[in-house]
Amino acid sequence: MRLRVVDAFTDRPFRGNPAGVLLLEGGFPPDAWLQQVAAEVNLSETAFAHPLPPGGEADWALRWFTPASEVDMCGHATLATAHVIATSGLARGLIRFSARCGVLTAEAAEDGSITMDFPTSSLTPVAADPVVRRALGAEIRSVHDTSEHVGDLLVELVDERAVRELAPDHAALRGHSRRGVIVTAAAEDPSRGYDFVSRGFFPALGIDEDPVTGSAHTALAPFWAARLGRTSLVGLQGGARTGLVAVRPAGDRTLLTGHAVTVIDGELLARPLP
Fold this sequence. Notes:
The protein is α+β, with helices and mostly antiparallel strands. It folds into two domains: about 1-115 and about 260-265, Diaminopimelate Epimerase, Chain A, domain 1; about 125-255, Diaminopimelate Epimerase, Chain A, domain 1. About 20% of the residues lie in helices and about 40% in strands. The chain has helices at about 30-40, 75-85, 130-135, 160-165, 170-175, 215-230; strands at about 1-10, 15-25, 45-50, 60-65, 70, 95-100, 100-110, 115-120, 125, 140-145, 150-155, 180-185, 195-200, 205-210, 235-240, 240-250, 255-260, 260-265. It has an 18-stranded mixed beta sheet that branches. The protein is globular and about 50 Å long. One of its GO terms (cellular component) is cytoplasm. Keywords: Isomerase.
């Protein structure tokens, strides 16, 4: 079976967020095998997809696994999967995925960018959890709970510098009840090509920091659109590795646009047991 590693939300190798992508010919193998492959690949997510019969609401079935568990929604591994399908000549135009969070779509443009259509996350203001406050060790402006598909806390910090210099206590965050914590702030200088910054921490999923989290931008998009008064925005996410996500909230849906590049193309020799 052919296994790719794709850097998502970047047009250059070794940037953005790497995802494993495995296209299957039939249905999904046993969950235990999928989880073992994801643990072996050891990236923040590995995507598994197989084609569906024609005439349905989706073209491909899609699942995502971290090294520790399956997740309900993942943006960068969806982008990576769409990139592999498009560049392999397996589909043209709109690609429809059936996933845990519903039907998602992705469409490649002539410039190589891919635009995905995801459900917009809800945002509910909440009090700052003392555990999270201590774990972050930074001044907090606001905290919002996101929808069940995203499952993160969205934490606004005072400025871009605070986001970039943050060194959270991952062990403390690991015991927090939410999927992860996204920290964000407005860009210090929008002329640099982005409107807001963010970083994402998911130690409960076995990922201390995720370089670029597409699903988190379904919450970041409406959050910053309301504050900045615009609906077409660009977010920069990451610490050591960074990537750009163009976002456009449209009611209950959010469009996420980015590039991707394949950096490894190899063969998975371990087969599922019959």
